[in-house]
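To whoever is on call:

I kicked off a structure prediction for a single chain this morning and the downstream step that reads the tokens threw a length-mismatch warning. I double-checked the sequence; it's 357 residues and nothing unusual in it as far as I can see. Pasting both halves so you can look.
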Amino acid sequence: MNFIERRNERILGRWLMACCLVLLILVIVGGATRLTGSGLSMVEWQPLTVIPPMNEESWMAEFDAYRASPEYQKINYGMSLSEFKVIYWWEFGHRLLARGLGLVFALPLLFFWVRGMVPVRLRWPLLGLLALGGFQGWLGWYMVQSGLVDIPRVSPYRLAAHLGVALVIFAIMFRLALSLLWPGPRRPAPRRWRPWTIALLAMVSVTIIWGAFVAGLNAGLVYNTFPLMAGQWIPHGILGLEPTWRNLFENTATVQFIHRVLAVVTFVIALVAWLRVWKREPDARIRWTFHALFAVVAIQVGLGIATLLTYVPVTLGTIHQGVAVLVLAAVIGADYLADRDPSGERQTAHETRLTTA
């Protein structure tokens, strides 16, 4: 790879990292939007609208549309216009930031493509990310629609799908960015820690998705003790719904119980992996990566417990959702180092410079 190609890849890697940062902020704002009860304040999609109401007449039009919704009729009846503006701004900011992410991704991609800076091997993955982003925007509205009829609450299934697709997009962008910023050949034999990172990736992903079901059912507002649930390790009514499979996704006791178990198992795997790497791994980069991985997992578990014990305040709940994305990033980073050898790229680049000189 010549100097120009390497420079272009670094630029693409920094751009994708910037997109990851914007997506992280979007997930955090999305969490705050949900926790403040703002997600159903805009009852129309209007994907091209980027200007909020600018006068009293337009505000009243938005408010009248909201007052016809089930959420106003059944939960917020009697809400004032000033109170409506608070929840409207949260949802408007969330949608505007989502559109901003689309522009931050699409416009530079077009520029890089026209300039011939996108390697052939990245063209389909980047186009796939663009398509996923468009699908994610539609999925967000599909989620909101579920709360605009009869029951004023978005479907937990659609909420989990919406968050899940966001995390898939984040994971792909972050992994691509790592390969562009710190490229290197695959190790002849992956580090023996890679099975641990793969297990953690699976556990973290499933735990986050079950966290979305907890959020969708407001299951964090019941059984606000830890480690016991209402004085029991396994709460009553955990299989109270028929058919049985519905309990996994619709029973508040079962969903919270599963999320707890997944989180604890994830913590234990991260702890054991960290201890083994700390004692047996000679590569300092891998050791420090696992230090960071275990630290962020421990912080996330502590945040989860604190959020539960304090009945899910907006600040803690929002931070908890944001740190979940950081845990995912840490696992992906650890897995990358366990499978690749970035030092090989640095050595090749050094040899190239010597040859050029």
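Update from on-call: the warning came from a stale cache, not from the record. Cleared it. Sanity check on the structure: Residues 346-357 have pLDDT under 50 and may be disordered.
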